[in-house]
Amino acid sequence: MAKIDDVARLAGVSKGTVSNVFSQKRPTSEKVTDKVLEASRELNYVPNHIARSLVTKKTMAIGLTIPHGNFFFNTFHNQFINGVILEASHYGYRVLLDMVPVEKVKTPSLASYPIDGAIVLGPTEEDERINLLHLNQIPFVTIGKIFNANVKDASTVNNDNFQIIRDICSYLIDKGHRSMMFLNANELMTVAIERREAFIEVLTNHQIDLQEHMIHYKPALTSSKYMNYGYDETVHVLSELKERVTAIIADDDRTAFSVMNAIKDLGLSVPEDLSLFVICGDLSMMHKATPSLTGMDLQSSELGVHSVRLLMHKLGILDGDFPEHMIISSKIIEGDSCSSL
Amino acid sequence: MAKIDDVARLAGVSKGTVSNVFSQKRPTSEKVTDKVLEASRELNYVPNHIARSLVTKKTMAIGLTIPHGNFFFNTFHNQFINGVILEASHYGYRVLLDMVPVEKVKTPSLASYPIDGAIVLGPTEEDERINLLHLNQIPFVTIGKIFNANVKDASTVNNDNFQIIRDICSYLIDKGHRSMMFLNANELMTVAIERREAFIEVLTNHQIDLQEHMIHYKPALTSSKYMNYGYDETVHVLSELKERVTAIIADDDRTAFSVMNAIKDLGLSVPEDLSLFVICGDLSMMHKATPSLTGMDLQSSELGVHSVRLLMHKLGILDGDFPEHMIISSKIIEGDSCSSL
DNA sequence: CTGAAAGCGCTTACAG
DNA sequence: CTGAAAGCGCTTACAG
């Protein structure tokens, strides 16, 4: 690969001038620009990104940090990533998928991250990834609340998980449901913690006793129970425990499909015998399911877009007023999976 | 951030020795190692990845190159990426999502890619991304066949698209279907080209006349028709053209859901009135749909894993015998969406 | 508008 | 096993 010296020599100018032509940081006369570009073309020259990064101290990449060993892209992440990639590309940024192995988190990783900032997906209660980013002084934005004791200035982009649970429960309670079963996210995630609190609050406000069968947590990806989340709980609670349940709130679309399968196997049907509400899923798929699924529009793509913007702001690339904590609104999209009692 | 000189000074050794302790490229005495590690801890030192890359000429990142402007992560890519990330991390590699804007492809990008190799998703017939990678001498693997005239030594990982279409058609023809409608991928993609050829071949072998309504292509993402692909074609062909169709082959699960919606709106049902076959989708979701969808298991996660392995082989990191073109097997997973005529 | 020179923070022969 | 020095390929004050 040709380097800047080769181009400078061929064009009869200095390295600094070649640099200017490509970086556009200082004006260059048209004549010189042409000479440089022609020489570059001839030599098939492209500036070395790494060498540039070393001196500018910018990698022009942001990390999308996903937890190792307990993570799986689902339809929510799908939309989210589409938003992230699109918005990042507006600022000339690329996206580095960063799956930090748990062991490496313990013994700080072998080399600094080649990223200018990071977006942390699915934070857990005391998330080591966040401590590591904090330690390495890498600006970051978390998708969801964090509780790390020593991290004060974290920026977050989140849905209003409390309001979401209140909205869902109100919607169901208005339809006469009081026997609800909540299939929450994995219990380590802060989103699950927020939702649980909200769920309990709603139950209390409506004088509904919280019973053990009413709330469940998604098993770890490594667990053999992972793939049957939704099915197993539905069968267990309805058929074995014989508890009365009239409405099920499912964490995501996959879980909802799993629940529907269980309901069918029990000889029951949605929404006649049970109402089903999906918190996060692919709306166009949910809309086309039979029956179409009622769920929340979390605007996951917008979450991605705004997390990039907030990060760009922290990197000093985007001006304007940005709150430390940004909330993306959400609303109920009605399908045919919930009925009045 | 502390740098290598700081650590060397504090530990009372040379920079080269500090370097060795972290890179492990030469043995270091235990005593010196301890001194260096302690100094590093004290200074919170981590080697600078960029500076290292500049001299080693390795970025320890592979690019996942996705076409800009006409791309959307779907459930297939989901699984695929999960495979890629997992396998790449085995070799200490990170994954850079690279969405090359179309304009940038024209005027070769501003700086070289900070990647050691690339995996090209969804190649089109004369794919500019591939010419660019070739020009920049970056090793790459394509997911799907490519036809670039000047690129000879390309490695590909692919499903056997010809066999897949033959298998699907045989399956349907055995059930008595001769009036099939094929909702193919976007016509620019090589996968769509291979499938079309195979489809026509099968029809010819069974003395079925190819008619215009029998094959459709997914609209570009930028098209307003994109979101209704499947629905629109089904309604148009069945209701407006009033063509006889007994089986529909859908490119992916989203398209299949869309088709089911149309069928329902036409007052028909699956599989009684129409059989439905999905080429690529999330099997666990398809299994849980009502009716459960019959489809192909393309092993998309394996596609991801093997594309990384093949790339690692090209990078000289993985030994062994690797074919230039690797085929991942696929098989039919039966659900309840196809019936005999 | 352009050039000469220092420097970004590492690794790597070379020498001992 | 360790050190001194050159060099990776750029950018950036500084000077003109």
From TrEMBL, chains A, B:
SUPFAM superfamilies: lambda repressor-like DNA-binding domains, Periplasmic binding protein-like I
CDD domains per record: HTH_LacI
Pfam families: LacI, Peripla_BP_3
InterPro entries associated with the record: HTH_LacI, LacI/GalR-like_sensor, Lambda_DNA-bd_dom_sf, Peripla_BP_I
Entries under PROSITE patterns matching the protein: HTH_LACI_2
Record keywords, A-Z: DNA-binding, Transcription, Transcription regulation
Record's keyword annotation contains Iron-sulfur: no
Residues annotated as signal peptide: none
Residue spans crossing the bilayer: none
Span of domain HTH lacI-type: 2-56
PANTHER family reported in the protein's UniProt record: HTH-TYPE TRANSCRIPTIONAL REGULATOR GALS, LACI-RELATED TRANSCRIPTIONAL REPRESSOR
Protein name as catalogued: LacI family transcriptional regulator
Annotated source species: Paenibacillus sepulcri
